[in-house]
Amino acid sequence: MYVDPEIIRLLAFLIGVIAFAALNAAYLVWLERKEAAHIQRRIGPKEVGPFGLLQPLVDGIKLMTKQLIVPAGVDPVLFKIAPILVMVPAIMSFVTIPFSETLVARNLDIGLLAIFAFASVNVLGLLLGAWGSRNKYAVISAARVVSQNVAYEIPMLVTVVTLVMISGTMNLSKIVALQQGGFWHWNILNLSASPLMPVAFLIFFVCMLAETNRAPFDMAEAESELVAGAFTEYSGMGFGVFFMGEYANIVIGASMATILFLGGWDCPFGLFPGVHWFLIKMYFLIFTVIWIRWTYPRTTFYGLLNLSWKILIPISFVNLILTSAMLKVF
Amino acid sequence: MIDYLREIISGTWSLFVGLGITIRYFFQPVVTVQYPYETLPMTPRFRGHIELVKDEETGETKCIVCGMCQKACPSNCITVNGEKREGVKGKVLTEYTLDFTKCSLCGLCVESCTPKAITFSKDYNLAGVRKEAYIFDLKKRLEAKN
């Protein structure tokens, strides 16, 4: 029987991507708990398995055995579809991410655009989940999530436009290929394109935190004030899937920052590039994301919007103008 | 305009200072006591529930069954009983019960005890599921220790 190798390749990538997303989502929870514990000089999970490594598995079993309560009065279709709408785009985004020169599921010419298109579905999932659960507090919370995401998508996209102008392509593999050969070629230090490049990286990173609803911008589920906010009505694995979607989004965000600013799979000294360098940079960024969560308190909503509209957007536009001027002059 | 830029730069800098502090704590050794596996020695002034003191010479309790602790206790949680025995001077302790559900750890019993026969124990692992678990027979505890 003849099977097209392309189909086998696609299946392998499908399984690989889902396994990568799910394992990351599970073990980032473990990493988060460990890192939080060590910042507070505790130990963290240690009972289940060596170093508590089986803890995510046990948590998963616990979540799955819990009763899925669908409250009376909810919109059953929206209520059930919303967690999937958060999780699926996060997994879809992995399709275009190049982990190394050869390790990429689909080398799209519009890879960057595709990822941002999928990323915006995530917000839709949150909004539908809150709307479907017929809870006014969840709807208010979801409105905050949407306004936050709109506010932070602008500086992020303007920064990305700057990078697209520098690279001249939206193909993620080509963007990485242009940064090969040591850390002085990476976009974060590409000072000849724009002297504000390190600032642009910071802007991108802050926007990524806000887009993934991470602290200090975690308005969507401010546990202490809103009691899980937009997902108030979700129980068991419904809530678990929202949670996994959030962690998968962090992986996507860290991968994007790695690809766009830190040279992707390139070695900082120009030697032995490969997938390991991509993973090292990505996990360092994820470590930083968690580190930030356990350093800063949650901001107020006004502080959040002020930061975006008064600081990040003007600076990213200045960077855009500066870059276009530099490109025209040199 | 210059204030705006100064605020951004000093604000960003302060964020990095905060990150520096937390990463320093991250690499410092853990300070929490891993409780069920590790315990701390209690300080000498720690007030647990009361306990009978063993007389080093006889190996028995020092209690002379005067009943002062029972009288001093404001919440009536101590019960002392003794009996007269042949050939023994004074009374012999037969029952010393502490109802720890009522005890407020005021320490008046320890203060009023002339022969210094009761003291505070260093016991703090006092979880239980029944009220009866907190009615301590101190005489039995002392015998179990011997």
Quick recap:
The complex is a heterodimer of chains A (330) and B (146). With 330 residues, chain A is an all-alpha fold.
Helix and strand topology:
The complex is a heterodimer of chains A (330) and B (146).
Chain A: H1 5-39, H2 55-65, H3 76-93, H4 111-132, H5 136-167, H6 172-177, H7 197-211, H8 223-226, H9 236-261, H10 275-293, H11 301-329
Chain B: H1 2-27, E1 50-52, H2 68-72, E2 78-84, E3 91-99, H3 108-112, E4 118-120, E5 135-137, H4 138-145
Antiparallel strand pairs in B: 1-4, 2-3, 3-5
What does this structure look like?
The complex is a heterodimer of chains A (330) and B (146). Chain A is built from eleven helices and no strands. The termini of chain A are far apart. Chain A is globular, with a radius of gyration of 20 Å. By secondary structure, chain A is mainly alpha-helical. The mean pLDDT of chain A is 86. The relative contact order of chain A is 0.14. In chain B, the strands form two sheets. In chain B, strands 2-3-5 form a three-stranded antiparallel β-sheet. The radius of gyration of chain B is 27 Å and the shape is elongated. Chain B is an alpha+beta fold. Chain B starts with a helix and ends with a helix. The model of chain B has no long low-confidence stretch (mean pLDDT 88). Chain B: It catalyses: a quinone + NADH + 5 H(+)(in) = a quinol + NAD(+) + 4 H(+)(out). Chain B: It is found in: Cell membrane. Chain B: This is NADH-quinone oxidoreductase subunit I. Chain B: Belongs to the complex I 23 kDa subunit family. Chain B: Its main location: membrane. Chain A: It comes from Thiovibrio frasassiensis.
